Input
Amino acid sequence: MRISRYKGTVKSYKAVTRNRVQIELKNIQSIFELFIDQSWVLNRGDSIVLAGTEDETGKICCYAYKNFSTQIKGWNYDENLDIHKVLILFSLVFVVIGLFVFPPFLLVIFMTFSSIKDLKKSKITNKIYRTALDLVER
Output
């Protein structure tokens, strides 16, 4: 999908909703449909620039504009972008924490099991030593 820039003077426009408008420019023979999150501000004769892509029907779907006559601009904003940024940040934090905390944690677990195993061996060894000592002292 290639985004193109279109500059011209507003010939006519038709409001679809508060955030959507169809525009005709004097110098370009296409219909532009502007989808933005903010309210749009246009009048006939305004000098504007639009950025968008052409769809299958030949209509150009625009996602940003600037009105040079009023110095007003508008664009689409993905609200999920902030959530994605936070999720990525938390993921990175957990990875970094995991790199520094998890290996020592695994080491502690390994050492604990190893120590328990050695403790059992020590008890058995001590029992053998005591038995040997008892046999020697008799």
